[in-house]
Amino acid sequence: PKYEHWLLNPLHLWQRNYSANACLFPICALHHVAVTTVEGIGNTKTRLHPVQERIAKSHGSQCGFCTPGIVMSMYTLLRNQPEPKMEEIEDAFQGNLCRCTGYRPILEGYRTFAKDQGCGKKLVNGSGCCMNGKEDNTDLISTSLFNPSAFQPLDPTQEPIFPPELLTHNNKPQKQLCFKGERVMWFQPSTLKELVALKAQYPDAKLVVGNTEVGIETRLKNMLYPVIIAPTWIPEMNSVQHTEEGICFGASCSLSHLEEVLRKAVAQLPSYKTEVFRAVIEQLRWFAGPQIRNVAALGGNIMTASPISDLNPVFMASGSKLTLISNGDRTIRMDETFFTGYRKTILKSQELLLSIEIPFTRKGEYFSAFKQASRREDDIAIVNCGLRVLFPEGSDCVQEIKLSYGGMAPTTVMARKTCQELIGRKWKEDLLQEACHMLASEMNLSPSAPGGMVDFRRTLVLSFFFKFYLTVLQKLNIELNGNVIPPQYASATELFHKDPVDNVQLFQEVPPGQSIEDTVGRPLMHLSAAKQASGEAVYCDDIPRYENELYLTLVTSTKAHAKILSVDTTEAQNVPGFFCFISEKDVPGSNITGIANDETIFAKDTVTCVGHIIGGVLADTQEHSRRAARAVKITYEDLTPIVTIEEAIEKQSFFKWVRKIEKGNIQKGFEEADHIVEGEMYLGGQEHFYLETHCTIAVPKKEDGEMELFVSTQNLTKTQEFVANALGVPSNRIVVRVKRMGGGFGGKETRSTVVSTAVAVAAAKTGRAVRCMLDRDEDMLISGGRHPFLGFYKVGFKKNGRITCLDVSFYSNGGNSADLSFGVMDRAVFHMDNSYNIPNIRGIGRVCKTNLSSNTAFRGFGGPQGMMVAECWMSDVALKCGLPAEEVRKLNLYHEGDLTHFNQKLEGFTLRRCWEECIKNSDYHARRKFIDEFNRQNRWKKRGMAIIPTKFGISFTVPFLNQAGALVHVYTDGAVLLTHGGTEMGQGLNTKMIQVASRTLGIPTSKIYISETSTNTVPNASPTAASVSADINGMAVLNACQTIIKRLEPIRSANPKGSWEDWVLAAYQSCVSLSATGFYRIPDLDYDPEKNEGKAFAYFSYGVSCSEVEIDCLTGDHKNLRTDIVMDVGTSLNPAIDIGQIEGGFVQGVGLFTLEELRYSPEGNLYTRGPGMYKIPSFGDIPTEFHVSLLRDCPNSKAIYSSKAVGEPPLFLSASVFYAIKDAIIAARQESGLKEPFRLDSPATPERIRNACVDVFTKMCPSAKPGTFKPWSVRV
To answer: What positions does the domain FAD-binding PCMH-type occupy (predicted)?
Structure first.
């Protein structure tokens, strides 16, 4: 299980359920604790638990890799609260991530447990709620993807009980425990006296309660702590005491317990006493997720002494009291002297933190805490603070003030000078001005400061103080009837609030009279969802260990560009379990590999990126293998790296290939224009962040060089080909098998081969099975991601916004090898028009060769980058013309029958229908007026809205890949085994293929099974990519099934009333073959790039999205208020899967355009190597109102059963969120008198949003001149 849920009974006679991270929680700490994993609550063989059933049936499980963790978070909540509120359900998932679904269906399924459930479907133009029945029976529009009345009820009496034998331990005296491992001793003392003695004996020992910090350090930072002491069960360290001055918490109290106690106090005590308590609760609201808060200790948070701790600034500003103990005890206040350096405190080595007293506030005392992070939920702070002021009764003169900040120095710091200067001053405008100037100089940062974002961090210090100033002013006004703050400033003081998610999904029901057994067009559940929800689904690394299996850990370069001088494995050989080291010398065939044959399996003399694979260590276990790999010593001679696109342009470091499309007359187009705008836009890359990292198991077969590989890959053919090439055997000796992947998104199309080929070489050398599953940090470092792009544009247009001419140049960062970069650039240039008819157009694309890990395929494959630049110049044009953006966009849209810039005629062009429906569904014009009014009334919060179209070409741009095969076996009992060339990675391909086979054969889906995809059943399969897999594999399945039906025709004619089983048995007995292959190729793809004519794509998928956001101009925070999507997916094969792909793609795009930022050092070292620094969207990032409508009555004659491709096209619709943010920033800039077009690069992070909202505070923090300092990170 990915997460575990457990019952704790520490020192209390009551039991409680907690969810926790299985990967962090130490086994030693589970003594006296009952553990329940996902397998323990239900399964498909007996009965699913309602929590498992509902996520499966509500389509909340796609790839399924995250599902057990989500199931256990929900299960824990229900054990503690059988009838939760919707808000509690959303909060329970703060520590869970999903990369496939877009979260909406998970919340929708679990809404059925909530006591305030409703249906979550607001009325959309008079329709939408399930209580209203169908909108219009003639249209057969459905809003319901699942039937809640079919769910089994939750019965709390049927849950596992707390084990009675553990209850008996309460009556027995506790004993000190000691566990000894290979390198670590773990002590669990039972009394304070034992704890003090142990700390005196082992002064360097680490104290661990939740292991949420030490666990990360040992796992990811290679730290080793030989002695660990766990004070979890010591009564004094868990006690909570109410004193005259405040509430005193034992240092082992969990953060969840802290929050619970403080919430009760806030409810019971007068509000003037609980200002600090409310600040702590507000910080805890966004502190990690419940799985961490449940186990992380208050004392651990203080003693870790992190410079970005969310609680330490609160404790410092409030002057909380700490009790320290060794042989005696002493009490100190946490003040500016407590932290002595980075992660250091004033405690002596044998001293322990026993407790912390959080004080009550007095009358006239006010306290606020603020935090800004990249993502709202479960994220570390960029800057945080605790701010306190005390006034004498009836006065607004400052008596005491403490301003404490995190994220501004190597420790939590106090703005001492500023505080001293403000004492005795009146809480008025001039105090604000002076405080900001003083803070700007006192809280200065070096432009090279670790963490970067220097201007943003400095501005946040002032913004937070301004929010505090306004908040206190508001409270003083109530107390003293003083000056009221301007009404348009009031919203700046509001704490973040988000309403529970509301949604509507509209799709067309199947036509009346369609057989109940024909599932095509019905919202059929993903066929593996139940197994995924119960933890039974088998992923690559779940395959049991083979006898004598070895584990491989890759040894990779720490330099971006260098010569390898030596590789020393002496120290590695001394690690227990070490078997051998492999390198390029051990490759039996060719060490040359890669799509363009420009890569090596193992680096030979030179490394060309950080993460370049040099070799690998084989050992008996994963732990030993990792330890030995860390012990390999490599010496280098540095060479100069090229890291960024700008450096590559300057040094002319390009791959030779250049892509150019030109149509019309550029010069004439610019001459006809009334205005010309030039600009540029940078789009950052994106990490795939599939939940299952790259994994391969290679099993040598001892005969003739045969080998079987189990791989998490989208591309079996290349995996087979590269392994055969490396081992020097023909492809017929290599079998590659894929059952399912825990997500792919393009990241497993080619880059999976860097792992699988190395594993195969290791298995060939040792003659033993070898396994390798990358850790997240290794995966992010080695495997590359979406290409960063830099686009330069020059656009000519008329006064009315009609585009006459476009000249655009694209540069992408390809990394250290070609991989699929040419194909990605090809698609970017094909999509540089987005959906707009531009009579004179030229686009040129070049791929930069740099010293980064090779970038690769990622959902959209260059299309989103090309279209994003188009929308950038389109928003500039609208701003320059002074016209509403939606009018300018609509004016330039293509019409049916128009020719694209690559001269393909648009047939079945439904985009204008999607546009009109989206305008109507979103109530665009009325809401636009409301937004304008909101912006007039609010100075520091602004709303924005944008409507964005997309047109996405469907086909591989490499023509020969547009083919697919299938194999159908019918057995004598009527059971059908189906195989095709596509792989299942959560997108529901296997479910759709079974639906296609079911309709073609005329039998129920229950009779058809897909076991896996393999190279020995369907050879030479194209990768599962380019959104065409359902199209081409569906046609191949249709072709194979039709062959079977044709062969059965005479038998069916002879016995028309017989059953399927009768006909199959009769066919077998008549010696008729019951096995058939199927094949399909997309016809008429004949584009000629030299002539710029012919057909590049089989057809296009269309969609339109309208999004509304609200930004906080002071912090750069934004929230997604509402999104309406209308998508043309033809006649949907499965509306549940298609809507799931639309929502999942959209939310992945929200990550790409607003959240996810890869950060590199100037030397090409990747900083963002895991979820700690790299943030994908979480449950709280989806639009509060999320409406998706499938366009009706638009069959597509070019694909299987009139359907359309749906994997990649919706991703770009999330650009509507980016341009809604830009729209809101425009409103903010107008307040500062700025009306010209401005540059906003992607992603629109809080930093970019805040810096673009130029105001008095940003002007107090001027930027250092580029070139005068070395930045901490660079834009690649």
So the answer is: 179-363
